[in-house]
Write a structure and sequence with these properties.
Oligomer: heterodimer
Distance between the termini of chain A: 30 Å
Number of strands of chain B: 16
Largest sheet of chain B: 8 strands, parallel
Strand content of chain B: 15-25%
Order of helices and strands of chain B: EEEEEEHEHEHHEHEEEEEHEHEHH
Strand order of the largest sheet of chain B: 3-16-15-10-9-8-7-4
Structural class of chain A: alpha/beta
CATH class of chain B: Alpha Beta
Strand order of the largest sheet of chain A: 4-3-7-1-2-6-5
CATH architecture of chain B: Alpha-Beta Barrel
CATH superfamily of chain B: Aldolase class I
Largest sheet of chain A: 7 strands, antiparallel
CATH topology of the largest domain in chain A: Rossmann fold
Amino acid sequence: MKKTAIMRIAGTKYLAEGIYRTELVPVSPTDDLGGVIPGQFIGIYPNDRTALLPRPISICRYNPFGSGNGGSYTVVYRTVGKGTNELAGLSFGDSVRVIGMLGNGYDLDAFAGKRTLLLGGGIGIPPLLELAARIRAKNRELGEIQRKTSGKNQSEKLYCGRLTAALGYRNSELFLMEEFASAADEVIVATDDGSVGTHGTCIDAARAAGTGFDVIAACGPMPMLRGVKTFAAERNVPAYISLEERMACGVGVCLGCVVKTKEKDAHSNVNNARVCTEGPVFLAEDVDI
Amino acid sequence: MDLSVKIAGVELKNPVMTASGTFGSGMEYSEFVDLGKLGAVVTKGVSSVPWEGNPTPRVAETDSGMLNAIGLQNPGLDVFLKRDLPFLAAQDTKVIVNVCGHTEEEYLDVVERLSDEPRVSMLEINVSCPNVKRGALQFGQDPGELEKLTARIKEKAGQPIIMKLTPNVTNIADLARAAQAGGADALSMINTLLGMKIDVERQRFVLANRTGGLSGPAIKPVAVRCVYQCAQAVSIPIIGMGGIASGEDAVEFLLAGASAVAVGMMNFHDPKTTEKVIDGLRAYMERHHVSDVKELIGAVRG
């Protein structure tokens, strides 16, 4: 269920130039948003009364036991304007109003037990961290089941599937890189300036590494996602991409954030789907980007 | 305390409704708001066939407001009747359908097909959207055209008609008089103000449509002035809107001469804004010992 809630700032950390990590905790049990599907987002309303629209920001990490009032919700964002600048400047204990959970998120069953390639570009990297952690947990569960049912000894592999994260950064400030290193089986890096890893995008890095995969989950800027769509079509694998579009309401009312779709959308009755509601995660082949 | 008002013979339990395009057909916000508390739900614009709307970006925030150039994307009347109207009719509130069209025929088609629909209490005719290139605004900006279109619609309509006026004219009172002369049962105002935003870093228009309609608290003083001007010019009731966020904002519009009000862009800021406005209105009336909300309508005079 969607709701508006008040969250307290439990800490903000500078991660890289213009990139911050903020942990939000509900101020009361009724303010908890009841968890997250990786890829879902919240809208954060600035306290500045001249900035009235919620800022859509994906959840980077969720800890169900993260606070006395329920979970804790971590967002990692780039400061690009009034809202995100205000958020980064809030102090421990300050509060913000949020709306959530919003959007569909990634369907874990599409990745569980498979060789998954995560493609993250810039500020599209953070939401893939929660996804990586959930896929990893799922792969372990599947591994356990397989080990038990096969009746073989304990030396059988513990995990099913395989998780590769290819991350594209602007420069050598590799935010969240360590977290990915512990969540994924393999991490590949690309930088725009060539200072670390492949000189280019995360797709270039994935090509260079040559790791095999059955499915892609991607989040990043639109030009990158177009590249992902092509890359996935070349390899004939499904790619689940998380889109970004200018939004107003965040809940499917205003029809501001639509994306062109291949088929007629059930809700809109035209070839437009709402990024905030039918998305932000779409199968790449279903959208015209 | 009596909060009820009557618009063109239709009784509303209170004067607070939703502004078209900011509340869909009520379904999404029903998770946040008890629709049964509202005076009426005004739907997003419905056209005779589905409309795709404009390219994105369609929205942009501005200081204390926002620009939109959605372009009246909607699923068309058939889907509205099959999916949205049954949902709305099951709520304890009045349903006002906002009608849009590119041509006179398109307006009339929707109006006629809704004419014997008992679940619809009133029609609001959108002749004032700044984001649709053909037709709509042309009718809405020319008093002569507006009077003719109003008369044609009134002839076919089975429900009272509300003409929604644009502020993007030299004298909105001329439009109000024209709509009244054409037989409008009520007026609503204001639709959005035509605006533009430029991204100075990229040196590009922010909206794909270049221009968009400005709404939100930034336009409230313009809207209050328009309501006041039109209330002096016509005798039919006026539904006022433009940046309403609180009970006091609603009172301001009532004092200026509106018989009812609508909450628009501020739904996006807080989905519970409509309820807050109703509660705030009630608190204001208590504070000022007003027993009947109708006492506030047009109560401010020069």
